Amino acid sequence: MNALQVKNLSVAYEEKVVLKNVNLAIPVGRLTGIIGPNGAGKSTLIKAILNQLPNKSGAVHILERPLNSKDHTVGYVPQRNAVDWDFPTNALDVVLMGRYGHIGMIKKPSTKDKQIAMDCLKNVGMETFADRSIGQLSGGQQQRVFLARALAQEAEVYFMDEPFVGVDAATERTIIAILKDLKAKGKSVFVVHHDLQTASDYFDWMILLNQTITASGPTELTFTEDNLQEAYGGKLFFMDQAKSNKTFN
Amino acid sequence: MNEFWVLLTGSLVGITCGLTGVFLILRKTAMIADAISHTVLFGIVVAFMITQSLSGYWMLIGAAIAGLLTTFLVQVLQSGGLQEDAAIGVVFTSLFALGVLFITLFAGNVHLDVEHVLMGEIAFVPWDTWDVFGFSMPKAVWMLLFVLLLNVLFLVFFYKEIKLSTFDPVFALSIGLPILAMHYSYMTLVSLTTVAAFDSVGAVLVVAMLIGPAATAYLMSKSVSGMIVWSMTFGVTAAITGYYLAKLWNTSIAGMMAAMIGVIFMLVFLFKPHDGWIWKTFKRMKLQKTNIQANS
Ligand SMILES: Nc1ncnc2c1ncn2[C@@H]1O[C@H](COP(=O)(O)OP(=O)(O)OP(=O)(O)O)[C@@H](O)[C@H]1O
Ligand SMILES: [Mg+2]
């Protein structure tokens, strides 16, 4: 079964075409990296898959079905700067928002929902921050809260937009351990990622993207220098040095 | 007795606007309140032209439609690439001007003067009564109670939905929340609140009541529910203290209430524990002192 299937997807903002004729088929149970330069359309791809863009053509199937927002198969971690962190609420409350899809309209979160939310916070090592205002968390802690919220969704397929931005090495290891754990449980996880150094360690599947799909498939087949050069438009002159030089980003 | 009705009306304005205003602040769309408070005039005039009556129901309906129209037009201009504040500016000035034009053209001889709409007169509230189920209360009190009830019901049913779609609309959409419908429902409530309140305190001061207490509450709240409670408290406090000060100094009641909102905001801004201005300055001075001691 395919976790994600995309057929002839194209997206335009106003006149400008951002994604051209994207075709993808990715089997269930993969930890997939979505890689490409700034402005390649990675966030746009995720938004289009999640049905959030009006100007698109093509078909998207998740677990062989068209996306229906009423079933809870999809979890989502937006880019961290997508929300206002001064909003008056605490960490546990944000994680609880991951339960809203299950709770349904009008009804209130139950004790069980709160328990699940607390467990998810614990999972990301943030249980002592449950009552902390989200504005008083560090960037990495905020990122973990977002991840905990996605875990609380108890979804089958996850989409995460740059969950590693602005987190320290320890947090990055925590997060990747959680993602690998999700994969071990048979979930499918899609992660927008920028660090080419770590990409091949983290992901067993890759989508290389720059307006069109450069390559999509198992990491060992797709994560090649030729493909990367193509996706990054020949801007990766330092690829060889980069492999030995940890400062490359 | 008259004093009681005026106080009650003021307090109801404080509570209702305080409640509604919270999400205006959280959604960073405070200026849309200003727009709606002016464009409801257009709705009321059109309602009057159609029904030839000044009854409260038609006013509420006309205002709700005008509020929705404002929200809709702002949305359209925004998705056409205009910035939100520019979109609001364009929409509200044109609808307001159209409202004023219609009044002078078609309703010149009726009691619908612009000054009353803008400034209101809370002191006259007790004499304009409605009988409902044999109960006689001022019209303003009835309308405010009705709108307060709508606001409370909306929050009882959709509290977590409006909270999530305010905090993280993209995520809300991804779990299937109808965020656009929430937006329009909420803006309808803002319009209804505006029209129910402006008959007594006037359109301009409605804006003060919608934004001031909620903005003050925002300074000192750690949760949305806490913010709602504080906002309503500040609204009522401003109304009551404003009334008595106006009586004491024999000045405009609505004006004094608005002034009190400003006073409360300043007090909280200055004296709020931990990160109020005074507290911060004090801490900074203490820190400097220890630094100097450490350095010497
Ligand atoms: N709302 C929008 N309106 C118009 N153009 C947009 C919009 N959002 C994105 N774009 C454009 O679409 C292109 C792809 O954007 P997208 O955010 O998908 O890139 P990305 O791959 O996620 O980049 P990054 O690595 O910087 O996050 C960019 O050229 C961007 O300028
Ligand atoms: Mg992006």
Task: Provide a quick synopsis of the model.
The complex is a heterodimer of chains A (249) and B (296). In chain A, helix 4 packs across helix 5.
Tell me what you see in this structure:
The complex is a heterodimer of chains A (249) and B (296). Chain A has helices at 42-49, 91-96, 100-103, 111-123, 139-152, 169-184, 196-202, 219-222, 225-231, 239-244, and strands at 2-13, 16-27, 31-35, 56-62, 65-66, 74-77, 157-161, 188-192, 205-210, 212-218. With 249 residues, chain A is an alpha/beta fold. Chain A has two domains: 1-73 and 157-168 and 187-249, P-loop containing nucleotide triphosphate hydrolases (Rossmann fold), CATH 3.40.50; 83-154, no CATH class. In chain A, the strands form two sheets. In chain A, strands 6-7-8-3-9-10 form a six-stranded mixed beta sheet, with helices on both faces. A four-stranded antiparallel beta sheet of chain A has the order 2-1-4-5, with helices on one face. In chain A, strand 7 (157-161), helix 6 and strand 8 form a beta-alpha-beta unit. In chain A, helix 4 crosses helix 5. Mean pLDDT of chain A is 87; it is low at 241-249. Chain B has 296 residues and is an all-alpha fold. Chain B has one domain: ABC transporter involved in vitamin B12 uptake, BtuC, CATH 1.10.3470.10. In chain B, 81% of the residues lie in helices and 3% in strands. Chain B is built from twelve helices and two strands. Chain B has helices spanning 2-26, 30-51, 56-79, 84-106, 114-119, 139-167, 169-174, 179-201, 203-219, 224-249, 253-271, 277-295, and strands at 129-132, 135-138. A two-stranded antiparallel sheet of chain B has the order 1-2. Chain B is globular. Residues 13, 18, 36, 38-44 of chain A line the site of adenosine-5'-triphosphate. Chain B: It is a multi-pass membrane protein. Chain B: Keywords: Cell membrane, Membrane, Transmembrane, Transmembrane helix, Transport.
